[in-house]
Amino acid sequence: MKVLFVSPEVSPLVRTGGLGDVVGSLPLALKKIGLDVRVICPMHRECNNLAYRSLNKSFNLGSATKPYEGNLVETSLGESEVPVYLIKNSFLYDRPGIYSDENGNYEDNPERVFALCRAALKVEDITNWKPDVFHAHDWMAAPTCAFLNAKLQSRKQRPDQASVLTIHNLEHQGSGTYDHFKISGLPLDYWNLGFDRFGSLNLLKSGIQHADKITTVSPTYSREIRQDGLGHGLEGSLQYRGADLLGILNGIDEKSWNPMKDSSLPALINPEFPKEGKISCKNSLLKEMNLVKTKKSPLFGIVSRLCKQKGLDLLLKIFPRLLRNSNAQFVLLGSGSEEQEVCFMKLAQQHPQRFAAFIGFNDRLARRIFAGSDFFLMPSRYEPCGLAQQYAMRYGSIPIARRTGGLADTIKDFNDSKPVGNGFLFDDPDPHQLLKVIHKALEIFKNDDLFQKVRKNALSSPCSWENAAKQYAQVYNWSMEKNLNFKS
Ligand code: GLC
User: Fold this and answer.
1) Quick one: pLDDT at residue 104?
2) Which of 42, 122, 150, 222 could form a disulfide with 216, with the two C-beta atoms 3.0–4.6 Å apart?
């Protein structure tokens, strides 16, 4: 089975978040079980210094009415042998951000998206490697499914290719106008086949309509998004495609996230005997963040984008009480909403011994926070999957999170009468519920036997890609099934 991942990001080449991590690690797990997987992604500015090999002279990335010359270059995924094709066109992709800059989303995003989709379909002509399945990730790649259907329909032969769309976050859909749509060069009747949403262009919706199979990144999220008010306006389309929609829980790259080998850590953590490594990592993190070292204070970590989804406003509401009524300490790493950045900086100034904030993103510091903290806070309003709680557990930090999406699928609430849980969960996006569950965690922290037990459970939580890879392989097979039923 030959599968081409179509994505706007792929870690470690270019990444803004979890989508990049998934596209950078799932292909390796698929390769392990015998699939031939490759990735295509735009050559964003971050990729400019990579070593690569050119594959062709140039081809038209645009439509007949609006042509763009571009070409493909080849590199590989980290140290693996998974080929990555990068689309080179400096006008479209050599920009400060992937999706936006300080003035907001790029106005020509639809054109940049269509160029990615078009290049994905060209891969077979340029490389002689013909994908069986196009696996599109999120709104920026979603219309690939429509481009494929347009191509297959125009040939009027039995189709021999299929598409799968994975939705990592339904909040981001990619919008534009009918004029933008016309630049795609797709048949104009496709406007009513998924691209139109109340008179505006909706790129993600086109993928939901055209993909042969649709996945989301956790089973709970795949159920939530069909419910009224939880599908970011696309619940109707998702209900319509319900029979073809399923959730597959993300794994993490266990090789890169290995507390026994991670060079960013001041001490290594052995999941079997974590105590010593965790103490060293905690002490060193306290020092690095200029927090005071006390014997009995639990340390809470937060590594997050600062946006409404992540629910950190709930935390901001309870911080004054929490700081007053407990001895807890906090380290935050994040960036996003200016308002929240300012609030967290203020807290750090007001409580320099107990609250440290680092505004920005820094992969190595993130790892030290996972390793050095006792608990990890993730009060997301919604969470398609969430990787941070999985990284935290792997590094022995116990997650405290809201029971939603992938958080509900990866975290089992700890209950002292039946100590099987690996974290703490609360139900509603309500600051009082969050405070209550944090207090529960603080109580457990005082009982070292119980605390060590929960930490052991977190450290031994399954997080590999193995299971997910098998499920994706199954979905690829299902997506090809429609071709067998083709009647001309
Ligand atoms: C998005 C989602 C996150 C998910 C990630 C990878 O960033 O918000 O929940 O883990 O994609 O699928």
Assistant:
1) 93
2) 222
